[in-house]
Amino acid sequence: MLSFTFGGKNSYTDYEIVISQRASIPSPLRRVTTLEVPGRNSALRFDENTYEDITITVECSLKDNTSLADKVDLIKGWLIGAGESDLVFDFQPNKKYIAQVVNAINFVQAYKIFSKFIIIFNCRPFKFAVSNSAITLNTSGSITNIGTVYSEPIIKVYGTGDATLAIGSQVNKLTGISSSIIIDSTIQDCYAVDGSNMNNKMSGDFPVINIGANAVSWIGNVVKVEIIPNWRWL
Predict the structure, then answer these.
(1) CATH number, span 4-128
(2) Among 14-28, 63-77, 102-116, 212-226, which is the least confidently predicted range?
(3) Mind telling me which Pfam families this protein's record contains (predicted)?
């Protein structure tokens, strides 16, 4: 039985929702701007290396019974009330979307004992790994991106004083660390364990982990580096 988990609840085991067919998963549209230049063959292309959101439509049905009206209320409250949450389809349980329901949930009687309805999820462009265990490096080493697009990691550097961190060809200079600093490329912010702002302690662009192998090294009084990689797939 096809099902999905959204907002921590499963469509079939929690609500007895039957999915009519496996959802079609589109690829995200890459943002590329073109400019026509008179007298020039083809067009100039400006590739932003970013992607548009995607939309996933799921066709569902629900068996009519004496408590249908109450169940419909619960389903609407679940889908709409969950806001932006993790969406995991059972046919790919190791990957998730970050999604939100964006349509009104309308139940229409399709057969004598069934009602049908459609759920439209607006999703961020990528699939994300459901499990993202931290990778710890006590000395310089390498990290391999297992996804199909660069990832935006959360990096915790343990050390004191000034240091230089290099991931691939990207270099970040860190100054005046007291014990550790967290570099969060997902939200583009630097902060301490207690959440206090440390953006003035780092210079350089927020690092990404490119597809394939990425060398990781540092200079300075660094004890170790922990990386939550946030693997992503198109």
Answers:
(1) 2.40.30.200
(2) 102-116
(3) Sipho_tail
- The DSSP secondary structure of 76-104, one letter per residue, reads HHHHHHT-SEEEEETTSTTEEEEEEE-S-
Q: By C-alpha distance, which of 38, 220, 231 is closest to 150?
A: 231
b/e per residue 58-87 (b: at least 16 CB within 10 A): bebbbebeeeeeebbeebbebbeebeebeb
- Cβ(202)–Cβ(190) below 8 Å: yes
Q: Would you say 171 and 213 are in contact if contact means Cβ atoms under 8 Å apart? A: no
Q: What is the pLDDT of residues 157-193, one digit of tens each?
A: 999 999 999 999 999 999 999 999 999 999 999 999 9
Domain boundaries along the sequence of the chain: 4-128, 132-233
